[in-house]
Specification:
mainly alpha
């Protein structure tokens, strides 16, 4: 199938497919006219890549799962390496959430303070 057909079949874009190919996660042949041509297994592989990305992994993380991208990634028994990568990514996500929560809390506190100081004054200014 051509890149547009694969994109439609997997709910992604041609641009994303080219990105996955550049990252070494999928491959294609070139037709005589220069168009990329993918075999039917590529659709399974792309769906698995999208599943892993949606779970919070990065393309670099997904490389660890290359040996099982052609099967049912969600149902496959976990490997020690896959679990390690997933746990590391979870730790990174938790750190980011903690940092974002702290930033939100600081902003809320600053706004509450400003609202209390400016109640009824009609003044506008910076934080």
């Amino acid at each position: 199938m051509r890149i547009g057909e694969l994109a439609e079949a997997t709910g992604t874009t041609a641009r994303a497919l080219r990105h996955y190919e550049q990252a070494g996660l999928i491959s294609s042949e070139r037709a005589a006219n220069g168009y990329r041509v993918y075999d039917e297994r590529a659709a399974v592989r792309v769906r698995n890549i999208r599943f892993l990305l949606a779970a919070g992994l990065t393309l670099d993380d997904v490389r660890v799962f290359l040996p099982c991208l052609d099967g049912d990634v969600a149902a496959a028994p976990p490997s020690a390496t896959g679990l390690r990568v997933a746990r590391e990514r979870l730790a990174v996500l938790n750190e980011r959430i903690t940092a974002q929560t702290a930033a939100r809390d600081r902003l809320e506190a600053a706004l509450r303070q400003k609202d209390g100081l400016e109640a009824g004054t009609g003044r506008h200014g910076g934080l």
